[in-house]
Amino acid sequence: MKTHTLNQTLLFSAVIAVSTQLLAEPVQLDPLRVTVTTPLRMTQPIDQTLAATTVITRADIERQQPESVAQLLRGTAGVEFASNGGAGSVTSLFMRGTNSNHTLVLIDGVKINSPTDGRASWQFLPISQIERIEIVRGPQSSVWGADAIGGVVNIITRQMDLPINQGEIRVGAGNQNTRLMDASYTLANTSTQFTSALSYRETDGFNARLSDTSVERDGYEHYGLRLQVKHNLNERNTLSAGYLRSQGDNQYDNCSDAFWNSSNACKEEFSLQTLSLGWTHKLSETWQIDTQLQRVDEDRKDFFEGNANGRTQTQRDQLGIKATLTTTPFSLVTGFDAQKERVLKNSDFTRNRREIFGAFVQSHYQLTDEWTLSAGLRHDNDEFFGNKTTGNIGLDWQVSHAHSLGATLSQGYRAPNLMELYGPATWGANPNLQPEKSINYEIYWHYQPSATFQTEVRVFQNDIDNLIVLDDFWMNYNLDAARIRGAELSAHYTYQNWHLSGSLTLQNPKDRTNDELLPRRARESGRLDLDYIETRWGTGFTLEGQSKRTNSAWDSIEMGGYALVNTRAHWNLSPEWTLRAKIDNLFDKDYEQAAGYNTQGRYFETSLTYRF
Predict the structure, then answer these.
(1) Which CATH code fits 3-516+524-611?
(2) Is this model's pTM higher than 0.85 or not?
């Protein structure tokens, strides 16, 4: 698809999302009070946060029927993904045009970014075990510490707070010999809640490489387990424990001597597990202390023609203590973080561990009925780089009942990871690297005349210095600086049984040293979701797309823009049984997210869910 055609499609979709409110008289409904915890590390209604925040709920997940977290988030405001093939392949997130290791990724508040390369393994996160996802765009280091130059994605897993027992089983199948099964069960009373969940997905996949003319396929297999328990000792004390394990394997076409050999001889076995223990103590009606101890283990084993071809095993221990004050005009959270990360298996690292400590304070103050102030400060001490202080400040003006204007300023930084500093020389290790740092300026307008319609426009500029890049000799160095300017438009509208939401991102992610676009990032991207939902059934579609992008800083390959249409439907056969079906890439569009790699063609999947 030509770029100007894609631009017209995205702009037209955004206009529909904003202007539909003028076409029909909306039905007033009670507003859904969605709360978030990620922007300030304390609970607040989403309409009170000043940070650019998007929430994807369990209802959204069930309606859209995504096969992965990447498919669920792709095209939302400020979010782009790129995958090297099909299910289970390496997947990268570019938040507001920043690098793939510039976004901090959490599962229930537990950091899962790899200590080696700084990325999160999106392709192995079990979508069926997610309750909601909170996306905070823009630098958040003053709240969460390093690795949050682009923003934060916090994945909250499913759990039950109501005193009831219930379960769910889902089985499904799709093209490419895809099989899936999910099961969950919750036991809960007034004092104790226990949640368990299992997930399984396997597919023969498709040939990942464009250059491979054989009929071989790159398959994928994944298993997930989630256990969560919470017990109220008394009115003031609550204990909790959680365990998540995600493991599987995927076949791919590039490894070692097979770099140019598009065969099915390469395979990766992967496991990620998190363990967390928590204690919440209510000092009073307004003060609360939360303590959490966490461990994350990640293990990657690569094979070539059945023989071991490398292994990297990492571990991170984290301790977090925070105190929260909540009153009507003023809220405050302050705390302390400590983490130790280690490379347990990989002899190519000259140094294989580090310790990081941080302390933070964040406030939210309703100055008057019209003015709200948010401000925070954080100080981190990295074993390799010493001290770093970051801050944020924001001001919101409620112009009228429906209109509000605001501005924020926030800082971010990322300390080089162990791979960049002390990893294999062939991957550009350089112990003299300095941390990347950024500052983000942002203004926004929010309009919500009723509970059924809202829209928001945000304009931002994120300046990144000491950007770490590879030179022509494959050595990491601090030289580049990036400036990312952009605008985001998002809108949501509900009219009777119709639900419409859309987002459009316009950005200019530039390398300031050569004035070129950063690779695999588009100037325009967007998404439109339209659903019609009755009591017994529902149907809908998603339109998503990107404009053209370059592949990498080392080649001149340009990938064309594209637009995809995904359709879906569900039928509530009874209160216990639900049948779902979907068709992704309805028009079988050929497109690339990484040069030389195939992407999913037209794909059909159906599933049956039983609740008890």
Answers:
(1) 2.40.170.20
(2) yes
